[in-house]
Design a protein that fits this description.
The chain is 70% helix and 3% strand. With 243 residues, the protein is mainly alpha-helical. It has two domains: 66 residues, Arc Repressor Mutant, subunit A, CATH 1.10.10.10; 156 residues, Up-down Bundle (Four Helix Bundle (Hemerythrin (Met), subunit A)). Strands 1-2 form a two-stranded antiparallel sheet.
Length: 243
């Protein structure tokens, strides 16, 4: 059993036990779908009561790290988190961090575009015909006058998420897509009254053209133009209204 049993103190036992099991999961010492020892076995190993172990397991279940199954072959099992679940968690956490810590819009813009810029060489090298087709479809959607502001925002997120997927790197795609989903709607919400949708579509088209040409440097220049326009909108938003 790959859990540290010798670091448990006398206070907050259930929290410490939950943390010990959580660390074993996060560090890969407990694999996805692995069955944990029984409550009685854990209580014996940690030198605590079964009720204390039960409380620790409840904490882990609330974090979606483990699940309980009934029956003769049941017990507590380590959950295998999907990419989608992990991305949802990261999006939620990022939005909370931005909102609760009053992160300036300019900092969010800087971080969001720095992340995408780093991925462009891979995206330019590996983007497929299907990726390019989807990028063009999103541009058409953005140019459609019937597209609502909410739909435009969703299309904007999808456009950049396709670029992330084009890298064919699951970890990079995970990080980038989560950043786009967390930050892009925030930026759109704050500047949507100021933005020129056609200009954004044109900047997106220049970026798609560069990716189709397999030109990472040109793609980075196009993205920098989009970043500059976004920063320009943010600056306009800060200007005081005149009477």
């Amino acid at each position: 059993m790959a859990i540290e049993f010798n670091t448990i103190q006398k206070e907050g036992l259930s929290v410490q036990i939950a943390n010990a099991i959580r660390d074993a999961i996060l560090e890969g010492r407990l694999a996805g779908e692995e069955r944990l020892p029984s409550e009685a076995d854990l209580a014996d190993r940690f030198g605590v009561s079964r009720s204390t172990v039960r409380e620790a397991l409840k904490r882990l279940a609330a974090q979606n790290l483990i699940r309980s199954e009934r029956g003769s072959s049941g017990g507590a099992f380590v959950n295998r988190m999907t990419w989608s679940e992990a991305q949802d968690n990261l999006v939620t956490t990022t939005r909370l961090l931005i909102g609760m810590n009053d992160i300036p819009l300019e900092d969010a813009i800087e971080a969001r575009f720095a992340l995408e810029t780093a991925a462009l060489p891979l995206a330019a090298e590996k983007c497929s015909d299907d990726d390019l087709k989807e990028l063009r479809a999103q541009i058409d959607r953005q140019r459609n006058p019937q597209t609502s502001d909410v739909e435009f925002c969703a299309s904007d997120v999808t456009f950049h998420s396709v670029i992330a997927q084009a890298t064919e790197n699951p970890l990079l795609t995970f990080q980038l897509s989560a950043a786009f989903e967390a930050m892009q709607p925030l930026m759109n919400m704050l500047v949507y009254r100021l933005r020129d949708r056609e200009r954004i579509a044109e900047l997106h088209e220049a970026l798609a053209d560069a990716l189709e040409a397999r030109d990472g440097s040109r793609a980075a220049a196009s993205l920098e133009s989009l970043s500059a326009y976004t920063r320009e909108l943010a600056a306009q938003r800060r200007k005081p209204k005149t009477a």
